[in-house]
Write a structure and sequence with these properties.
With 367 residues, the chain is α+β, with helices and mostly antiparallel strands. The protein has six helices and 19 strands. The strands form four sheets. The protein has a nine-stranded mixed beta sheet with strand order 2-1-19-18-14-3-12-13-17. The mean pLDDT is 93.
Length: 367
């Protein structure tokens, strides 16, 4: 197995630059997990593939307004601080806190540098001091955020911050809420769990009305989700670590579904990684986790213990997510599905269309 095995040609004009105006009216490519058979549908048709008693599990994380655009103190030069995670897990509840961040321009923002961020009136309401380099080899910094203009740092960040979009989306000036799921809760992520962007409150209620149940986990999505694998052998890739929570109620729902012969649908690869990370291999069962950490890397040959069906978007070539979906079905089936999607005009990546991978979807495209 080589990283090249998960590469494909992605024409730039296939990368969606705008979300679909109505979330659940985007396209849905249905793929039989066992046979690779394909069917072209509309996303709201997903209800047709869900049975009474099935369990759907989504990642309820919300994206931080993590992109801060400001000026370097002393020179006035433009600078950017991209918040990744609170340093040492300290929540930004007070007027100052340490954060781990990416900075730009990196060569000019060394320890001791100050960056100021102004609101719409031009008043500086938030500042960041570069404290140190983070020893991770990725160019990250530790910055001290502080505010005198607001009672809490959280309010200051919301006053000047922007929702970050993936690097392959250029010039989007629409509603930033379209890069959030309708069921998002705590702001803990630097990127959205994009498979969930296609669900509407009405669609979720329709799924429940059919007799299926809806549950949520939380995995804090990091910016490393956009990284491609550079190593020739993917097994040599250092997988990033993310924090996740799987409540006991989700464990109980998944266990009960399997006991009665129903399926567990994971909404997105982050939900897959949450559920499979919570599997206790020694005990042979799913266990609740609170603020656990995972660097689970699912490659072809990996076994899935919890997830039976997956809703996912189309992924960047040579990424760990291409390897995950290939592990869930097969590399050949995934590559064939991606060829069909590109030839058929599907919209790709975060703002693009979706796939459903599940057993028993045996009708082929055109049938």
């Amino acid at each position: 197995m080589k990283t090249d095995d998960f590469d494909y040609e992605l024409p730039p004009d296939r990368i969606a630059q705008q979300p679909w105006p109505v979330r659940d009216e985007c396209r849905l490519l249905v793929m039989d997990r066992a046979t690779g058979a394909l069917a072209d549908r509309i996303f709201r048709d997903i209800v047709d593939y869900i049975d009474p008693g099935d369990v759907l599990v989504a990642n309820e994380t919300r994206v931080l307004p993590a992109r801060l655009l400001g000026c370097k103190r002393g020179t006035g030069g433009q600078a950017e601080v991209f918040l990744l995670r609170p340093h040492a897990g300290v929540a930004p509840a007070n007027k100052s806190a340490l954060w781990e961040a990416l900075v730009r321009p990196g060569k000019r923002l060394k320890p001791g540098a100050m960056v100021d961020f102004a609101d719409a009136s031009g008043a500086v309401v938030l500042s960041a001091e570069v404290v140190d380099f983070k020893e991770d080899g990725k160019g990250e910094r530790i910055v001290n955020l502080s505010t005198d203009a607001f009672p809490t740092l959280d309010q200051a960040v919301h006053a000047v911050g922007h929702t970050p979009l993936p690097p392959y989306i250029h010039g989007y000036a629409g509603d930033e809420e379209m890069y959030q799921t309708v069921y998002s809760q705590r702001e803990t992520s630097a990127a959205a769990p994009t498979a969930g962007l296609h669900f509407t409150p009405q669609l979720i209620e329709g799924i429940k009305a059919k007799g299926a149940s809806w549950h949520t986990v939380e995995l804090q999505v990091g910016i490393d989700t956009f990284r491609i694998v550079e190593e020739e052998d993917p097994a040599q890739h250092a997988m990033h670590t993310e924090t996740y929570t799987v409540p006991q109620s989700v464990v109980d729902a998944c266990d009960a579904a399997h006991e009665r012969g129903n399926r567990v649908f994971a909404i997105g690869t982050t939900s897959v990684r949450s559920l499979e990370s919570a599997w206790d291999a020694a005990a042979g069962c799913l266990r609740a986790r609170e603020n656990g950490t995972t660097s689970l890397f699912l490659l072809p040959g990996s076994r899935f213990h919890v997830v039976d069906a997956m809703v996912t978007n189309f992924h960047v070539p040579r990424s760990t997510l291409m390897m995950l979906v290939s592990a869930f079905s097969s590399r050949d089936s995934i590559m064939n599905a991606y060829r069909h999607a590109i030839e058929s005009g599907y919209r790709m990546l975060s703002f693009g269309d979706a796939m459903l991978i599940a057993a028993g979807c045996g009708h082929s495209v055109g049938a």
